[in-house]
Amino acid sequence: MIWQFPTLTALQSTEALEQLAIKQRVIDSSLGGTVPEYVLERKIETSNPFNQAYWFPEQASTYAESVDSLYMDIFFISLVFFVAIVAVMVYFCIVYRRKGGVIAPQPSSSHNTTIEILWSVLPSILLVYMFVEGAGTFWEMKVPKTDSEEIQVIAYKYGWQFIYPNGDTTSELHLVQDQPVVLKLQSKDVLHSFFVPAFRQKQDIVPGRYTTAYIEPNKAGQYRLSCNEYCGDGHSKMRTACIVHVSQEDRLANTEWKKPEYSAWENGEHLYKIHCAGCHNINSIAGTGPALNLTWNREGKTAGGEAFKANETYIKESILYPSKKIVEGFGAEGSISKMNSFKGILSETPGGDIDHVIAFLRYLQDPDSVSSEKLKDLPEEKPAAAE
Amino acid sequence: MADAAHDDHHDHGEFIAHHFDSAEQQFDSGKLGIWLFLVTEVLFFSGLFVAYTLYRNHHPEIFDQAHVFLDKYLGGLNTIVLLFSSLTMALAVRAAQLGRNKNCGIYILITMVCAAMFLGVKAIEYSHKWDIGIFPGSLFALNYQHPEPTMIAGISDYLIWISMIPAILLVLFSVASIVGLLTKKTVFSKLMLGMAITVGGYFLGVFAGYSYMEAIMDHGDESHAAVTVEHDDQNIHMVSMTIDDEKSGAGHDGDHKEGDHAHAEGDHGHGGHHEQAYDKHHPDPKSLSKDVKIFFSIYYCMTGLHAIHIIAGIIALAWVYWRCLLGHWRTDYFGPVDYVGLYWHLVDLIWIYLFPLLYLID
Amino acid sequence: MVDKTQRNKIFGTPETTFLNHSKGFASWAFTVDHKRIGIMYMIGVTIALFLAGFFALVLRSHLFSFDGQGLPFYGKLSNADYNQMFTLHGAVMVFSFIIPSIPGALGNIVLPMMLGTKDVAFPRMNLASFYLWIIGTGCLLAAILFGGGLDTGWTFYTPYSIETDTGVIYATFGAFILGFSSIFTGLNFLVTVNTMRAKGQTWFKLPLFIWSLYATAIIQVLATPVLGITLLMLIAESTLHIGIFDPRYGGDPVLFQHFFWFYSHPAVYIMILPAMGVISELISVYSQKRIFGYSFIAFSSVAIALLGFLVWGHHMFTSGQSVVMTLIFSAITFTVAIPSAVKVFNWLATLYKGSILLNTPMCYALAFIFLFGIGGLTGLFLGALSVDIHLHDTYFVVAHFHFVMVGGTLTALLGGLYHWWPKIFGRMYNDTLGRVSCFLVFVGFNVTFFPQFVMGARGMPRRYAQYDPEFQIFHQISTIGAFVLGFGILGAFLVLVHAAFYGKLAGANPFKAASLEWQSSSPPDFHNFTHTPILNDPYDFDALVYDEELDTYISREFADPAKVPPRKEPVHH
């Protein structure tokens, strides 16, 4: 009864398979290093549609299993209903078919409220089950664990850039098995969508705002990563790989890292957009906090009446310990700042994040006062900016 | 059906379409139809109202900064004009129900004049915004220096361009009316005369708005430096320039490109007067969020769409007016006046919402 | 009660009908007759169907191989061309074909007749609706001819639709105009049903097709204006950059999605509700059984229409909207399943103990239940949040909505055409060939779209010009199926067209159907009825008796009292 598809190998022509192999080699060589044995996701272990392996690629994230099992539950529920409907329909059509052109319907009731209510209410119970199960797993997908690694994802026409906490970038996504990760997704141009079938995770990437996707990969391997929201001529070329390494060491050793392509102030702008833009404007208008384009070298008074000058020291202090010197008129009750500390979030090392933010603040006042040299061209240990 | 009624039927049956059984059925169908149409109109505008609400929630500062560019007295004048036109429309419907075609025609004519007057005031508002570079969308380039080269005899050339169409219509309608009179086509002549009077309403609106603007300018000229308190009370500023602004602006014009205004002040050390120009009602372009143009986008979308509805309303009213002249309305046939009336009240109602949402923020 | 001459005049082969009432191009182009407008709509939407179907075959041919080489004889299509193909396929199918199809073609002809009236309430507006359809479709096609095509997908998502240099403005303007065409039809139907029902025809004596058209019209009137303003804002955004939808100017692209789906989700019900109405008629007539659970079917139409307004967010589960909103939309989405299921169960119950005639329209109706069953049930997968995250925008979704839109609406349209064709043209089709076409459509359809469920679950994104080789085999099966489906649909229309000219005379009521339109001659008179139709229950088939002389079914009241068999069941509601 059930449509059974022939397995891939049975029908695929040899030429197509060869081309497939060439494509794999291209991907493999671009990755370098020892990726765990190439996992061909379309691995069809079964031609039996009652088995979830028939329908799905590899399960490689913590919640993949519950997605698949709900899918299979709905599949079986639907199958029961569908088979019942079709069977009844076919049965009636055979038994009650018009014979010899004689129209002779047998008398029977044309309404029955009890049965109507029964077949409205009983399926509803199943629907509630589907909703609750689906919502539960969805919640799991949406709420990240606190020890998650944060990776910035920039989608553009037509490719991907993944930026890791240390600033290095790759064009494939490299993750570590059992290390939860939060992806902060941004688009440079139009809508894109991040989709890794093996993780059962998908998230649209909307220009002008940030979206996040949470993943906890639990199986090392190489998986397909594709753009899932139509973005133009190269939409179908926006495919890359997502490699889950067995360990952090393995990832460090076996990844072709690319150094950042931007300068200190550009990175500062980037960090500003991620961390600061919610409260601080750069258009001279104070938001929750003071406007940052007016900040550099500004002289003013704190809420406590103390004079200050917004130099590097002050700014760094304000980022790490916001309540120490609050600008007059901005604190909440008493001397508590509305801002959270960014200690541990922005790196304090010389040439690190905070220095980049400062470079951006200086750039806002005078673009010529800061270097536009690319970070990757700078020596590793950059001397701290002069006081 | 009684015999008398039967005769009657023969008499006015011309207005009952073949597929309707009775005048009641036709009237009920039309009434339900127009109500449903009004529902679609409300939903049509609702998209813009939703956009307004969302942006006001997300960017309250834009609305705060931008609404000062709208003059609530001109908006208020338009509100009164429209409310009055709704009254005359209601009277017109009443007259039609009583079969008084002549009265109905007069009320319809007043309604049309009010509608045109509304457009006249709107033209003043739009042209003044365009003078200082408040265009929709990416064309937005707020710049108080802008108008000089485009002013003709002290009147914005945008206003002149906009008024060109009504001016041509005025001539056409007048000529047509006279031709009709000469060729003894009385109804046609009266219709054209009515249309010419309607277009006259536009110029009445322009005149009213323009006089008001002149008054502000004079007022601003006299009291600019001295009476700042009065500014707050009267809240008079459409962002128009004072005469002084114009003069000093002309001085800079040769030296600076558009958009360089802020630098111009600093460079020439001439800023005393100008800094005053950037008061609460003439904000410094630099101090505005770059997104204020979104407010004006919404403003132009909403008021522009509304203005299109006013124009459509005038056309519908003209049709009703024409049928008044033909003496079509009877105590048992007045549906179209009723339907156009309902439409007109909706157009009025939408303005009643637009006015506070756009002009009376704070 | 009625003498024979008069009876023959009413039910016999008429001399003058709405078809030969007047001749010449102008008598059609400026007609306000609902039947002629309906026929013009029918021709129009059929052309749109074949045009969009052609685009579908082009893109299926392209997808025959994973690297975009296409079919051997076909040659390569560039990615840009492929994008245009799927966009035009979607846009023309949705805006120019499916939405106006059943209401515009069948509804226009049948609705006033079912109400026993001469015309819709606003005949000129009805004609305007058709001309707006022509202008709107013309604008869509102008995008191809003058605008450099259209490559945004039928959803016109911003900001891509603002950036692309193709004819988005032509197309959106076209869709805007088509929206008004749809509003005019809906408004007309609402008023007609409210004010122009036959005397004594209460709401619960209306055929269910009327109920479904009424529910559809509510959606058309309430949802379409929102699409109108959205598309206007989109046009303003592309030309003036007003900053409502474009993030570069401070706008919000997700707002566009909300606006768009606020219309386009209810629009899904504009597409499927009339189809359900048609099926209710067919199932009942061809099993000669009073429809089971009349009021449940009637109210489920209204329930679907109203719930349809509350679920638009389920198109946006992955768009980054808040988790709470997502949960609410998911919950409401499941509730829509219930009225849909109720309809299916009631149809099955109607078959029970019936006298089932498996002719062409009935075959289409049964195919509908099968295909819509799959389409509806796969909707459950997409309503369940976690599963939808995986399936969203994959081929699973493509397959799902094709099962509903094509397997549902197109099948019902064909069934409805076969059902009312003898009424409209007075001639009978070749039933065997009709059933062959139905078989081809059914098989072709399943072969085309079933593999897409598997691809989708395995992670094949939609709108991909090139794809991973592992999916190739499914695409190949799908392409072959598409050609079979194409031939099936072509065949179905050829059978109908042939019948319209060369079929044998059908008689006034060949199927023993009880709704009022069957009390007119076939084809109907210009004024629909030459007599005042006798109001009876639309599902009381015992009210009709066979007349040997005319070889058709007529109301008992007109029959020779001597030959009328006794009533079988008491008339009740």
Verbal overview:
The complex is a heterotrimer of chains A (387), B (362) and C (573). Chain A is an alpha+beta fold and 387 residues long. Chain A folds into 2 domains: 1-61 and 144-258, Immunoglobulin-like, CATH 2.60.40; 264-377, Cytochrome Bc1 Complex, Chain D, domain 2 (Orthogonal Bundle), CATH 1.10.760.10. Chain A contains 9 helices and 12 strands. Chain A has a 5-stranded mixed beta sheet, with no helix packed on it. Chain A has a 5-stranded mixed beta sheet with strand order 4-10-9-6-7. In chain A, strands 11-12 form a two-stranded antiparallel ribbon. In chain A, a hairpin with a 4-residue loop joins β6 (192-196) and β7 (201-205). In chain A, α4 (64-95) runs antiparallel to α5 (113-142). Chain A is elongated and about 100 Å long. Chain B is built from 13 helices and 2 strands. The N and C termini of chain B lie far apart (63 Å). Chain B has 362 residues and is mainly alpha-helical. In chain B, α2 (23-58) packs across α3, α4 packs antiparallel against α13 (335-359) and α5 packs antiparallel against α6 (157-182). In chain B, 40% of the residues are buried. Helices cover 73% and strands 1% of the residues of chain B. Chain C is mostly helical. Chain C has one domain: Cytochrome c oxidase-like, subunit I domain (Cytochrome C Oxidase, Chain A), CATH 1.20.210. Chain C contains 16 helices and 4 strands. Chain C has helices at residues 4-11, 25-29, 34-62, 79-114, 123-145, 160-163, 168-195, 208-240, 253-287, 294-307, 323-351, 360-383, 385-391, 395-425, 431-457, 472-502; strands at residues 427-428, 504-505, 544-547, 552-555. In chain C, the strands form 2 sheets. Chain C has a two-stranded antiparallel sheet. The two termini of chain C are 26 Å apart. Classes of the chains: A alpha+beta (387), B mainly alpha (362), C mainly alpha (573). Chains A and C meet through α2, α4, α5, β7 and β9 of A and α4, α9, α10, α11 and α12 of C.
